[in-house]
Amino acid sequence: MTKSTHSTLIVNGDIRSTPADPSTPLLYVLRNDLELNGAKFGCGAGQCGACTVLLNGNPIRSCLTTLQNIPANSKITTIEGLTATTSEFGILQNAFIEEQAAQCGYCINGMIMTAKAFLDKTPNPNETQIRKALAGNLCRCGTHSRIIKAVQRAAKQIRQSVVQEMHREQQQIKPQSKEQLSSGAVS
Protein backbone atom coordinates (compact mmCIF):
# COMPACT_ATOMS: atom_id res chain seq x y z
CA MET A 1 0.00 0.00 0.00
CA THR A 2 1.31 3.45 -0.94
CA LYS A 3 1.50 6.00 1.81
CA SER A 4 -0.31 9.21 0.90
CA THR A 5 1.36 12.45 1.89
CA HIS A 6 -0.27 15.84 1.96
CA SER A 7 1.44 19.17 2.19
CA THR A 8 -0.29 21.89 4.15
CA LEU A 9 0.21 25.49 3.07
CA ILE A 10 -1.06 28.87 4.23
CA VAL A 11 -2.13 30.57 1.03
CA ASN A 12 -3.80 33.99 1.06
CA GLY A 13 -4.61 33.51 4.74
CA ASP A 14 -6.31 30.14 4.28
CA ILE A 15 -4.92 26.76 5.32
CA ARG A 16 -4.83 24.62 2.19
CA SER A 17 -3.83 21.01 1.67
CA THR A 18 -2.45 19.35 -1.45
CA PRO A 19 -1.57 15.75 -2.28
CA ALA A 20 1.31 16.95 -4.48
CA ASP A 21 4.73 15.38 -4.16
CA PRO A 22 7.10 17.49 -2.01
CA SER A 23 9.36 18.02 -5.05
CA THR A 24 6.52 19.72 -6.96
CA PRO A 25 7.08 23.39 -7.79
CA LEU A 26 4.76 25.71 -5.90
CA LEU A 27 3.55 27.19 -9.20
CA TYR A 28 1.99 23.87 -10.24
CA VAL A 29 0.30 23.45 -6.88
CA LEU A 30 -1.12 26.97 -6.98
CA ARG A 31 -2.46 26.63 -10.51
CA ASN A 32 -3.41 22.96 -10.73
CA ASP A 33 -4.40 21.97 -7.19
CA LEU A 34 -5.57 25.25 -5.66
CA GLU A 35 -6.94 26.82 -8.87
CA LEU A 36 -5.12 30.11 -8.28
CA ASN A 37 -4.10 31.10 -11.78
CA GLY A 38 -2.65 34.56 -11.22
CA ALA A 39 0.95 33.35 -11.15
CA LYS A 40 1.95 32.46 -14.71
CA PHE A 41 4.36 29.93 -16.19
CA GLY A 42 6.79 31.99 -18.21
CA CYS A 43 10.24 30.50 -18.53
CA GLY A 44 10.31 27.75 -15.90
CA ALA A 45 13.81 28.86 -14.94
CA GLY A 46 13.07 31.72 -12.54
CA GLN A 47 14.35 34.34 -14.98
CA CYS A 48 11.19 36.15 -16.13
CA GLY A 49 9.21 36.80 -12.93
CA ALA A 50 5.78 35.88 -14.32
CA CYS A 51 5.37 33.28 -11.55
CA THR A 52 6.24 35.65 -8.68
CA VAL A 53 4.35 35.22 -5.41
CA LEU A 54 5.17 36.41 -1.92
CA LEU A 55 6.57 34.07 0.74
CA ASN A 56 6.40 35.78 4.12
CA GLY A 57 6.28 39.11 2.29
CA ASN A 58 9.27 38.42 0.04
CA PRO A 59 8.98 37.82 -3.69
CA ILE A 60 9.92 34.32 -4.84
CA ARG A 61 9.80 32.47 -8.14
CA SER A 62 7.14 29.84 -7.64
CA CYS A 63 8.35 27.86 -10.68
CA LEU A 64 11.60 27.09 -8.82
CA THR A 65 10.38 26.86 -5.24
CA THR A 66 9.35 23.31 -4.40
CA LEU A 67 6.96 22.40 -1.60
CA GLN A 68 9.76 20.80 0.40
CA ASN A 69 11.64 24.12 0.38
CA ILE A 70 8.81 26.12 1.95
CA PRO A 71 9.30 26.38 5.71
CA ALA A 72 6.39 25.29 7.91
CA ASN A 73 3.86 28.00 8.74
CA SER A 74 5.10 30.25 5.94
CA LYS A 75 2.57 32.64 4.47
CA ILE A 76 2.17 32.53 0.71
CA THR A 77 0.41 35.43 -0.97
CA THR A 78 -0.69 35.34 -4.58
CA ILE A 79 -2.17 38.15 -6.65
CA GLU A 80 -5.61 36.78 -5.74
CA GLY A 81 -4.77 37.24 -2.05
CA LEU A 82 -3.88 40.88 -2.47
CA THR A 83 -7.34 41.73 -3.72
CA ALA A 84 -8.90 40.35 -0.57
CA THR A 85 -6.55 41.79 2.02
CA THR A 86 -5.02 45.13 1.12
CA SER A 87 -6.07 48.48 -0.18
CA GLU A 88 -2.55 48.88 -1.57
CA PHE A 89 -3.43 46.37 -4.29
CA GLY A 90 -6.20 48.64 -5.47
CA ILE A 91 -3.73 51.49 -5.59
CA LEU A 92 -1.12 49.39 -7.41
CA GLN A 93 -3.65 47.96 -9.85
CA ASN A 94 -5.12 51.39 -10.60
CA ALA A 95 -1.65 52.87 -11.09
CA PHE A 96 -0.86 50.16 -13.63
CA ILE A 97 -4.14 50.88 -15.40
CA GLU A 98 -3.69 54.67 -15.32
CA GLU A 99 -0.17 54.40 -16.74
CA GLN A 100 -1.28 51.80 -19.32
CA ALA A 101 1.52 49.58 -18.03
CA ALA A 102 0.03 46.34 -19.33
CA GLN A 103 0.06 45.53 -22.98
CA CYS A 104 -0.53 41.77 -23.16
CA GLY A 105 -0.76 41.51 -19.35
CA TYR A 106 1.19 38.28 -18.96
CA CYS A 107 3.95 39.77 -16.79
CA ILE A 108 1.77 42.16 -14.80
CA ASN A 109 0.86 39.84 -11.92
CA GLY A 110 4.53 39.16 -11.25
CA MET A 111 5.34 42.85 -11.61
CA ILE A 112 2.60 43.81 -9.13
CA MET A 113 3.69 41.17 -6.61
CA THR A 114 7.30 42.30 -6.84
CA ALA A 115 6.25 45.97 -6.59
CA LYS A 116 4.06 45.20 -3.55
CA ALA A 117 6.94 43.59 -1.67
CA PHE A 118 9.29 46.39 -2.73
CA LEU A 119 6.94 49.22 -1.72
CA ASP A 120 6.29 47.58 1.65
CA LYS A 121 10.01 47.91 2.37
CA THR A 122 10.76 51.08 0.38
CA PRO A 123 7.80 53.46 0.59
CA ASN A 124 9.60 56.42 -1.00
CA PRO A 125 11.68 54.93 -3.81
CA ASN A 126 13.53 56.73 -6.54
CA GLU A 127 13.53 55.54 -10.16
CA THR A 128 16.87 53.74 -9.83
CA GLN A 129 15.61 51.75 -6.82
CA ILE A 130 12.43 50.79 -8.69
CA ARG A 131 14.39 49.67 -11.75
CA LYS A 132 16.69 47.57 -9.56
CA ALA A 133 13.74 46.01 -7.68
CA LEU A 134 11.97 45.07 -10.92
CA ALA A 135 15.11 44.04 -12.84
CA GLY A 136 14.28 40.34 -12.49
CA ASN A 137 10.81 40.76 -14.01
CA LEU A 138 10.69 40.80 -17.77
CA CYS A 139 8.09 42.42 -19.98
CA ARG A 140 8.32 41.04 -23.49
CA CYS A 141 6.04 43.81 -24.79
CA GLY A 142 8.53 46.49 -23.75
CA THR A 143 6.35 48.51 -21.38
CA HIS A 144 9.05 48.81 -18.70
CA SER A 145 9.01 52.62 -18.73
CA ARG A 146 5.25 52.62 -18.11
CA ILE A 147 5.64 49.98 -15.40
CA ILE A 148 8.24 52.19 -13.65
CA LYS A 149 5.84 55.15 -13.84
CA ALA A 150 3.05 52.97 -12.44
CA VAL A 151 5.16 51.98 -9.43
CA GLN A 152 6.15 55.63 -8.89
CA ARG A 153 2.48 56.64 -9.02
CA ALA A 154 1.47 53.86 -6.63
CA ALA A 155 4.24 54.78 -4.17
CA LYS A 156 3.07 58.40 -4.12
CA GLN A 157 -0.59 57.42 -3.70
CA ILE A 158 0.20 54.92 -0.92
CA ARG A 159 2.19 57.58 0.95
CA GLN A 160 -0.71 60.03 0.55
CA SER A 161 -3.21 57.47 1.83
CA VAL A 162 -1.04 56.81 4.90
CA VAL A 163 -0.88 60.55 5.65
CA GLN A 164 -4.65 60.87 5.20
CA GLU A 165 -5.26 57.93 7.54
CA MET A 166 -2.97 59.44 10.19
CA HIS A 167 -4.85 62.75 9.85
CA ARG A 168 -8.20 60.96 10.31
CA GLU A 169 -6.92 59.19 13.42
CA GLN A 170 -5.67 62.46 14.90
CA GLN A 171 -9.07 64.08 14.32
CA GLN A 172 -10.76 61.27 16.23
CA ILE A 173 -8.72 62.00 19.35
CA LYS A 174 -10.65 64.63 21.29
CA PRO A 175 -8.59 67.25 23.09
CA GLN A 176 -9.42 67.48 26.79
CA SER A 177 -10.20 70.79 28.47
CA LYS A 178 -8.06 71.93 31.41
CA GLU A 179 -11.03 71.41 33.74
CA GLN A 180 -11.52 67.81 32.60
CA LEU A 181 -7.85 67.04 32.94
CA SER A 182 -7.57 68.57 36.44
CA SER A 183 -10.73 66.86 37.70
CA GLY A 184 -9.71 63.48 36.26
CA ALA A 185 -12.78 63.37 34.01
CA VAL A 186 -11.72 61.88 30.73
CA SER A 187 -14.13 61.15 27.93
Features:
187 residues, Ubiquitin-like (UB roll), DNA polymerase, domain 1, 5-stranded mixed β-sheet, 7 helices, 44% helix
- Looking across the biggest beta sheet, what order are the strands in? 2-1-5-3-4
On the 0 to 100 scale, the average pLDDT is: 88
Shape: globular
What is the domain tally?
A: 2
**What would you call the structural class?**
alpha+beta
Element order: H for helix, E for strand? EEHEEEHHHHHH
What's the total count of β strands? 5
Short précis:
Helices cover about 45% and strands about 10% of the residues. With about 190 residues, it is of the alpha+beta class. A hairpin with a 2-residue loop joins strand 3 and strand 4.
Topology summary:
Layout: E1 7-11, E2 14-18, H1 26-33, E3 52-55, E4 58-61, E5 75-77, H2 79-85, H3 87-98, H4 108-121, H5 127-133, H6 144-172, H7 178-183
What report would you give on this structure?
It is a single chain. This protein has 7 helices and 5 strands, in the order ββαβββαααααα. With 187 residues, the chain is an alpha+beta fold. The chain has 2 domains: 1-79, Ubiquitin-like (UB roll), CATH 3.10.20.30; 86-174, [2Fe-2S]-binding domain (DNA polymerase, domain 1). It has a 5-stranded mixed beta sheet, with helices on both faces. The radius of gyration is 21 Å and the shape is globular. The mean pLDDT is 88.
